[in-house]
Design goal:
Glutaredoxin, eight-stranded mixed β-sheet, 30 helices, 43% helix, elongated
Length: 763
């Protein structure tokens, strides 16, 4: 994620790290340029919302562009419609000749014919043959779909529609599908086909006007629906959305759940006409002139609410009502309708995709007017409705989740607590930075990326076109709530994983124990080599996962170590900015420095911990400079061969020296502590006046020991001031401003434990 530490006061929140950039290969056409019948097209872009930062941030594999959640896809209805008239899906471009031959399709019938002969050939062809034409390219595309050819077929549609019988016995369907194919190929290969102008526009309006004027185009039958569904999509293909709002309005007004499937598909296809219409000439003026269009959309939703399941056409069409409040000319029409719908239908459950998408429009396209919709309290209203599972890991850590089992919650707590121990072992810090009171972290986990995109923006005011978000807030403010907002990696199921969990938790620890002040303070000079590198290093090390991508990068030797000290986040033409450098090369730089030059790391962190950013920069760029570049290059060669090495032995706190084995002192440890189930290992230490923070940690051994702190009194399970009660023996307590004099703590045998070590530190 980048950046990871943000001041809530300045509303800076930054997306979390994803695995890599996921580049979808295929057609990212608006549905008006939908792929051939039977061949799925890519989803249309989500929203018109601006990205929070125009930078190369790795995302979740399922993240949407723009951040607006779409309708979920439980039944496919909201996806690209498929007409029942289609035979087999069109083949890939390389298989075009074979597909055409298999369908008895001679492309020369369309590339060499003109005038009435072309119209006759289109009508004589099978729908499968016409479907294959969506894949024409080059000179074939030019000769089949040039403007004159398209205008000829559009005029043929006009003539054939006069006697349209309500089925495809006169091959009107072939004419419609040919025109759809032409618009699609022209959109995809404009240099092959050439531009379309007024000649085709006049002809296509004549053809569509004639079709929709034909009495049988209104037949509510399966046979008519087969052609009508494609004719509705053709409205959008031809960019005639504004000219045919009356057709769309009639279909929405007339629809009932008794309509046959092809007629239902025709209605579903109006969603594309509506959505894309808001970006096309003539559509908004048409809606201004006819306010009944907006109320018809609303009535369509409320009449057919029984169909709503999140992935249905009612949801998809209903979401488009939100576009009314996105445009000044239509906002007065849209506000009361949107308010009614978000008040009428629950914010969770089957109706959530409808209501929360409409909420998105109010928040992003009618900003500052939440009171108009009764939505100002969503940040407090939504969490208890959505985050119905919760576990307190210890006094400093809580998990709130949408859908997690008790075992998953427990495992998550254990993972974070044990990672905490590893972090301190690797970094060897001396406790939290003075003045940092971010003692509590809340981890919020949505069920998957879709649910995250649906709710996280409204609940926490963050962008969601990313892989999660860590909010540090103001670490000097008492009561500040640090929060990592995440989602499960649903694409890895049945394995359970919270996307970016360990990486982001390292950021929390790094911000608390290494980086002085808030995020803005830490960005005074380039610190990203460390910030992201240590998060990657701790995450991979704790999970015992080989960082294959980083190791592969090592062999390329793309960067010198001295160059990596200059890595930054901000989007510039400079080579300092790219996701690969930030995460994979950050990992390599930190791993090398921790293993090969730990004293230099300690010196740099000592500067970071006091906010001496310029001093740290001088150490990195002047004191260290380029002197390790050659050794780093040698290390990269070894690392690429899977010989990256290991950390040097970590020095432990010295053993306590007091004769009484119960007594501790500043920065000392006792090993091999033990107690049977239900019994205690009691301990104490003396604190001088003025101690700001006391940290007690336990680890190692067998069984399950819980840690209790009693202040000036003996600590038991019934009398304590703080406790840490995780599974196993990995416990930690940080006590701010403890009293001077003798203080007491104990290990309680939740199960018989032995071989456990305890360390005490204070500042």
């Amino acid at each position: 994620m980048r950046p990871f530490r943000i001041s809530k006061a300045q509303a800076r929140r930054v997306p979390a790290l994803g695995a890599a950039f996921f580049i979808a290969l295929g057609l990212f056409a608006p549905q008006s340029q939908a792929a051939p019948i039977g061949q799925a097209s890519a989803a249309a872009p989500a929203a018109k919302a601006a990205a929070p930062r125009a930078i190369p941030v790795p995302k979740s594999p399922e993240a949407t562009t723009g951040g607006r959640p779409l309708a979920s896809e439980t039944d496919g209805t909201a996806g690209t419609p498929k007409a029942a008239a289609a035979g087999t899906p069109a083949k890939s471009a390389k298989q075009f000749s074979a597909a055409a031959a298999a369908n008895g399709c001679d492309t020369s019938a369309f590339t060499n014919a003109t005038g009435s002969a072309l119209v006759a050939n289109v009508k004589a062809a099978s729908l499968d043959c016409i479907n294959s034409l969506f894949l024409l390219t080059g000179t074939d595309a030019t000769r089949a779909f040039g403007e004159a050819q398209m205008a000829t077929v559009a005029n043929g549609l006009r003539d054939a529609s006069a006697g349209y019988p309500g089925d495809n016995s006169t091959s009107v369907g072939q004419l419609v599908l040919f025109l759809r194919a032409g618009y699609y190929v022209q959109w995809k290969y404009p240099n092959d086909v050439g531009q379309y102008g007024s000649t085709l526009q006049t002809a296509i309006r004549g053809g569509l006007d004639a079709f929709y004027a034909a009495p049988h185009s209104k037949d509510v039958t399966q046979a008519n629906g087969d052609t009508l569904a494609e004719a509705v999509t053709l409205i959008d293909s031809a960019y005639e959305n504004g000219h045919y709002t009356g057709v769309v309005k009639r279909l929405l007004a007339d629809y009932t759940t008794s309509w046959p499937s092809s007629m239902t598909t025709a209605v579903a296809n109006t969603e594309t006409v509506i959505e894309n219409g808001f970006d096309r000439d003539g559509f908004i003026p048409a809606l201004q002139a006819d306010p009944g269009f907006a109320t018809t959309m609303s009535s369509f939703v409320t009449r057919n609410a029984s169909l709503i399941n999140g992935g249905d056409m009612v949801t998809s069409i209903g979401i488009q009502i939100g576009n009314l409040v996105a445009h000044d000319q239509l906002r007065a029409q849209g506000r009361p309708i949107v308010k009614d719908l978000v008040s009428r239908y629950p914010l969770v459950g089957a109706t959530a995709p409808l209501t929360m998408n409409l909420v998105w429009f109010t928040e992003n396209k009618d900003k500052g007017n939440c009171s108009v919709y009764g939505l100002c309290d969503l940040p407090t209203r939504l969490p208890p409705l959505v985050l119905t599972n919760e576990r307190t890991c210890n006094a400093n850590l809580r998990v709130r989740a949408q859908e997690m089992t008790a075992q998953q919650l427990a495992d998550t707590c254990t993972s974070l607590i044990n990672e905490d121990a590893l972090f301190h072992k690797v970094i060897q810090d001396n406790g939290a930075i003075p003045g940092d009171v971010n003692t509590n972290l809340e981890v919020v986990v949505f069920d998957d990326y879709y649910e995250y995109s649906l709710y996280a923006g409204s609940m926490y005011g963050i962008a969601v076109d990313n892989g999660g978000m860590y909010e540090e807030g103001n670490p000097a403010k008492v009561g500040n709530q640090a929060r990592f907002i995440a989602h499960e990696a649903s694409w890895l199921r049945p394995d359970f994983q919270i996307w970016n969990l360990n990486h982001e938790y390292t950021h929390y620890l790094d911000g608390r124990y290494n980086m002085y002040g808030d995020f803005d303070a830490g960005m005074t000079t380039p610190t990203i080599w460390w910030v992201e590198g240590v998060a990657e290093y701790i995450s991979y090390t704790y999970r015992n996962v080989r960082n294959a991508d980083a190791i592969a990068e090592a062999g390329k030797k793309t960067y010198k170590l001295s160059e990596l000290f200059d890595t930054v986040y901000d989007q510039t033409p400079d080579a300092n900015v790219n996701s690969n450098r930030i995460y994979r090369w950050g990992y390599l730089a930190v791993r090398y420095m921790l293993q090969s030059h730990p004293d230099d790391v300690k010196a740099v962190l000592a500067k970071y911990r006091t906010g001496d950013w310029n001093g740290a920069r001088t150490l990195l760029k002047s004191t260290i400079g380029t002197k390790y570049d050659a050794d780093f290059a040698t290390w990269l060669t070894a690392c690429a061969a899977d010989k990256c090495g290991t950390l040097p032995p970590v020095s432990q706190a010295p053993l306590c020296t007091a004769a009484d084995t119960r007594q501790f002192d500043k920065n000392c440890r006792r090993d091999n502590l033990a107690a049977t189930t239900g019994n205690y290992s009691y301990h104490f230490l003396y604190l001088p006046a003025g101690v700001k923070q006391l940290t007690i940690t336990s680890s190692g051994g067998s069984g399950n020991a819980d840690l209790y702190y009693g202040g000036s009194n003996w600590a038991t399970t019934s009398s304590y001031q703080a406790k840490s009660t995780n599974a196993g023996n990995g416990e930690s307590l940080t006590i701010a401003n403890p009293p001077s004099g003798w203080v007491y703590f104990s290990l309680y045998g939740q199960q018989t434990f032995g071989g456990t070590g305890v360390t005490t530190q204070y500042q």
